[in-house]
Design brief:
By secondary structure, the chain is an alpha/beta fold. It contains 9 helices and 11 strands.
Length: about 250
């Protein structure tokens, strides 16, 4: 397993947002977490990526513990260990979060060079390989404002891939894309999974999940309502909350 989550709980101002979340992600698997707005999907992704700390629970990335529960609370790894763990986590945000004052190339190499200490030449070489793979080699010197939504999405994916993470997390990757661009992103995700990366997608886009996922989790009010293969999920709509979501 490249990612294991056990007993994950998170509250804000005393209100539970995540309630005893348990799941795992295998190498080369594409797991889609579905649910309506406010279900806890983005909070879950932020906890996994150490952008939000959970209250208790276990998060294990490639056999390294980001956190584990001791005496009823989450105890996090030491800073040096967290840095190593985060090398194996790639994150693509819903609004891309590209630095507007940096070129495409600079956006991709910023973290490898300045956070993880990758030599500049090696970081630039890897960035150009990623841009070539994603059909953006001619955009290396462009700035985010010069790119289309689909191009920004691909740059964000390239940036997340720059350290060869074991797990790639994508938050609503199709929210600003037309059908043709969504198909392109689906193909990129499938290729990353084929190369052995575990993919975790947070989405409310049912058609995209049906297109790309191998397994689906349905989250509602901070709880996992159903976890199954894609085929089983779409064949069985016994849960009323899932039926209402599908009908939206």
């Amino acid at each position: 397993m490249v990612l294991e989550v056990q007993g994950l709980c998170k509250s804000f101002a005393g209100k539970p947002v995540l309630k005893d979340i348990n799941f795992s992600l295998k190498q080369g698997e594409i797991l889609a977490i579905l649910g309506r707005s406010g279900a806890g999907k983005t909070t879950l992704l932020r906890c996994i990526n150490y952008l939000t700390k959970c209250d208790r629970g276990t998060i294990k990335v490639d056999d390294m513990y980001l956190c584990k529960t001791e005496n009823g609370s989450a105890i996090y790894a030491k800073p040096a260990e967290v840095l190593e763990i985060r090398k194996n986590l790639g994150m693509v945000f819903q609004n891309f979060n590209l630095f507007p004052h940096m070129s495409v190339l600079q956006n991709i190499v910023e973290a490898p060079i300045n956070v993880f200490g990758v030599p500049k030449e090696k970081a630039h070489e890897k960035a150009m390989e990623l841009l070539e793979m994603l059909g953006l080699s001619d955009k290396a010197d462009s700035y985010p404002f010069e790119l289309s939504g689909g191009q920004k999405q691909r740059v964000a994916i390239a940036r997340a891939c720059a350290l060869n993470p074991k797990v790639m997390c994508l938050d609503e990757p199709t929210s600003a894309l037309d059908p043709e661009l969504r198909e392109g992103i689906a193909t990129i995700i499938e290729n990353l999974a084929r190369d052995g990366m575990g993919i975790l997608i947070i989405t409310h886009d049912m058609s995209f999940a049906k297109r790309v996922a191998t397994r689906i989790i349905f989250l509602d009010e901070g709880q996992i309502i159903q976890e199954s293969s894609k085929e089983e999920f779409f064949e069985s709509m016994e849960n009323e909350r899932i039926r209402r979501f599908v009908a939206m």
